Amino acid sequence: MSENHIKPMLPDIFTIPRDEKHPPMLLGGYCRHCNAHYFPKPRYCPRCLEPPELKEIGNAGIIHSLTVVRTKPPLGLPQPYSVGYVDLEKGSAGSGLRVFCLFDPESVDHLKIGQKVVLRVGPLGHDGRGDTRLRPYFKPVHENEEG
Amino acid sequence: MMLASVIGVGMIPFGKHEERTLVSMGAQACRLALKDAGVLPSGVDAAFFSCGIASRLFGDFTIGQNVFWEVGINRIPVVNVENACTSGSTAFFLACNMVAAGQADVALVCGAEKMCVPGFGLISSGESQLDTQLGMVAPAGFALRAVRHMEEYGTTAEQLAKVSVKNRQHGALNPMAQFRDPITVEDVLSAPMIVDPLTRLSCCPIADGAAALLIASPQAAHRFSHSVHVKSSVLVTGNYENPQDLANWETDRRGAHTAYEKAGMGPEDMDLVECHDAFTISEILHYEALGLCPPGEGGRLVDEGSVALGGRVPVNPSGGLLSRGHPVGATGVAQIVEVVTQLRHEAGSRQVQNAKTGLAQCMGGDKDGDTKSCTVSIFSV
Ligand SMILES: [Zn+2]
Q1: A40 preceded by a cis bond (ω within 30 of 0)
Q2: Chain B: nearest CA to A115, how far in angstroms?
Q3: Which residues of B are catalytic?
Q4: How many Å apart are CA B301 and CA B284, to the nearest integer?
Q5: Which chain A residues have a beta carbon less than 8 Å from that of B151?
Q6: What is the pLDDT of residue B123?
Q7: What is the ipTM score, two decimals?
Q8: Does domain B4-117+207-230 have CATH number 3.40.47.10?
């Protein structure tokens, strides 16, 4: 894949998919003492001050809020681009966290509160000095489509 | 119960002051406050200077000593304060606590900012922050709150726009305001969209400017002719818990609640409010957090005219950030200058009739879906 050499915009925020069978996942912090999830992973658990472990915290959820930024974008993001909050699924794979995120630039005009979305990772924007970076973004899932 | 008194105010008009330096603007505001109170430099025991952005823009730091020496103040403790948009109100909070603790009889607070320079874009929290890397810019954080407020409470784009219309009506009466032309709901809605649903006229403009306050301890205040009492001054920080409730701002509410409790007063006691209307939705959220109306009814409050001059509790009689513009480090001080001017009944054509009490609320910075800093101060005569 040509994206292999492109670096993530920050380390330890998401997994990079090796193939179609391994979808990208958001990474966060999990404190086993407090049974608490965090995003992004904090240096120390704010409750007990032990270092949390890096853990996959989910890759699917529901749009809680969204907006479209139409002014000159920062960090080489497309104009316009969409951002919002997604409530990650709760349960075995998900943490139930509400995460701030980018949305798929292709879907800017088709996003709604309550819509199901799934995580993608791809080249999106740069590092502030023009070097392309991988960023995580959420894309709407249609009922007849899986992930 | 009284924390401190404001014995002098000074402010220069906010706007684009290309020919002015940060230090000259700050010094002019300080001079005006000292003259207003009739205090000489030798009568000041401590001084606090705030700016939010100029240090980064101009590579200058510990600017307070430069400003204060221009008005003859040296030797005494000088503190430089940065706390995003609440830099100025944080400096005020510190000065009040210093005089209340008996460490100073008279303290000077000055907030100044110079930010109208080419290429100044949208404010973010810094490139090392995850949210910034994911495209968070200041108006987006508020747009996401607006979208939730509309979803949960049925607040409309017209109600949001009415905040701008009202504040521009007030600003038209304030010679210190940068934008003094009235605008209509239609103007606000048809202005270029910045971040849905916030248009350019829903966002406060940047500005250069400076404002200053002279504070006295309760014991020293009686020596001065016109003093306004500080009943409480509160500074709180975000909670950063997950998930955040975007339509009901816990940090904002907590700041207000603490300030009312310390003042022994409630929202029903307030004659006027200056709040941080960086965006139209911000003001509506602050109505609710400050208890001026029940949760979800902020849109209705502006519809009914209760928060306009002549209404039950005028909010931002100065015209707010939407009319003044927002010189980051000066804003929190300028809000208090307005409340004090109103309580001294010196506000001219924008005077709130019979005003005896007032509140100044300010907020600054984003982190993890919450604000970084929120200040609430309550005043009375
Ligand atoms: Zn823990």
Answers
A1: yes
A2: 14
A3: 85, 326
A4: 8
A5: 65, 113
A6: 65
A7: 0.94
A8: yes
